[in-house]
């Protein structure tokens, strides 16, 4: 499965990422058709452009009609109506929820009360959904990124004149490697920072692998350097390496129901995995080890949520490396219709494993059990 590396010496905005992917060769016309199906009429065009004599593509995203101010519920309703895979819709919803949480934090209000001004326009919906959709189209299994340039200046927004990076951008950049520059202007927008926060598996000094092709997405701001985001598509058919953080705590003070609730809260917040191993604790009390796996960029959020959900007084945190096989979401045809599946490759062989939730839905439609469907699909 291919991997993607983002090279962003001039920063990143959501439209720059889509433009770069279009320059890489992705046809964006299905994206516009999908939004039309969801009742949102929007023009999505990647046009040829130049900056400092270097060619690339620049996005043009425009809605022909005036758009209302939207809340998170309005945005997620649109996402759920899109004819994309559950993987694309869920990742898009999760990103929008993350943005709403950050905006609520910097403005001191409830998530439900956040008005999406600049960040809530249709172009942000296109940027966020489009990003996860193109990753699925290309079958990208892993995203890496260069260090990020720090910048200064001010920006005029609905709340007045603000210093750069914007408050929401600053929060989203926490945990990411940055370096100082003399560049003045908004190099990383809130939407760009959101994509970095939700897409990037690891920040590296450069790409690793066999380079297949590249694309350049140009921004609109005039800079002393080329204002562009370069994406590099790399071939990959073996396990990739990524950094992860493991959080552990001993638990002997929670009920079974409370431990079950901890799982849902952490996984919904972006934890990669949650595990509880039962055992006997001090004073011979029954308890166990709670283990949480997350990406380093999500550590602060997952750490604080683990404290809040468990009321434990201490967490052990270890950063380690895991090997992951390339994977991609797919549709597996069956005699009863397509089901969502995960594809991977081992030793040159492709394997597709249907998602459990998809099998549950298929079981309800066919009157068969999940166990029966697994047997039938494994012998078709």
From TrEMBL:
Transmembrane segments: none annotated. One of its GO terms (molecular function) is nickel cation binding. This is Putative nickel insertion protein. It comes from the Bacteria. PANTHER family: NICKEL INSERTION PROTEIN-RELATED, PYRIDINIUM-3,5-BISTHIOCARBOXYLIC ACID MONONUCLEOTIDE NICKEL INSERTION PROTEIN. It comes from Desulfomicrobium apsheronum. Keywords: Lyase, Nickel. It holds the Pfam family Ni_insertion. Belongs to the LarC family. Gene3D superfamilies: Transcriptional regulatory protein pf0864 domain like (3.30.70.1380). The keyword Lyase applies.
């Amino acid at each position: 499965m291919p991997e993607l590396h983002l090279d962003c010496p001039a920063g990143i905005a959501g439209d720059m990422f889509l433009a770069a992917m279009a320059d890489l060769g992705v046809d964006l016309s299905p994206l516009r058709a999908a939004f039309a199906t969801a009742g949102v009429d929007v023009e999505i065009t990647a046009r040829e452009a130049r900056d400092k004599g270097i060619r690339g593509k620049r996005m043009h995203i425009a809605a022909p009609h005036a758009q209302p101010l939207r809340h998170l519920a309005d945005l997620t309703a649109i996402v759920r109506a899109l004819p994309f895979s559950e993987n694309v819709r869920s990742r898009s919803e999760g990103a929008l929820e993350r943005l709403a949480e950050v905006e609520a934090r910097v403005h001191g209000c409830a998530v439900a009360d956040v008005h999406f001004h600049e960040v809530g326009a249709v172009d942000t919906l296109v940027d966020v959904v489009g990003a996860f959709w193109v990753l699925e189209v290309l079958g990208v299994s892993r995203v890496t990124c260069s260090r990020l340039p720090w910048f200064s200046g001010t920006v005029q927004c609905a709340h007045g004149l603000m210093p750069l990076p914007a408050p929401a951008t600053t929060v989203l950049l926490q945990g990411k490697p940055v370096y100082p520059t003399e560049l003045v202007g908004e190099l990383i927008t809130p939407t760009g920072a959101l994509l970095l926060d939700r897409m990037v598996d690891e920040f590296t000094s450069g790409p690793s692998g066999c380079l297949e092709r590249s694309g350049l997405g140009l921004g609109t701001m005039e800079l002393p350097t080329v204002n562009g985001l370069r994406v590099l598509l790399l071939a990959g058919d073996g396990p990739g390496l990524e950094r992860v953080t493991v959080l552990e705590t001993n638990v002997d003070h929670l009920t079974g129901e409370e431990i079950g609730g901890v799982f849902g809260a952490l996984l919904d917040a972006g934890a990669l995995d949650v595990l509880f191993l039962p055992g006997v604790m001090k004073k011979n009390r029954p308890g166990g080890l709670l283990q949480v796996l997350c990406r380093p960029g999500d550590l602060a959020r997952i750490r604080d949520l683990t404290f809040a959900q468990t009321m434990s007084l201490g967490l052990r945190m270890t950063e380690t490396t895991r090997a992951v096989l390339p994977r991609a979401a797919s549709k597996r045809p069956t005699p009863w219709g397509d089901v969502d599946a995960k594809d991977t490759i081992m030793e040159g062989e492709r394997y597709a494993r249907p998602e459990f939730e998809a099998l549950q839905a298929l079981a309800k439609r066919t009157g068969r059990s999940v166990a029966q469907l697994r047997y039938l699909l494994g012998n078709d």
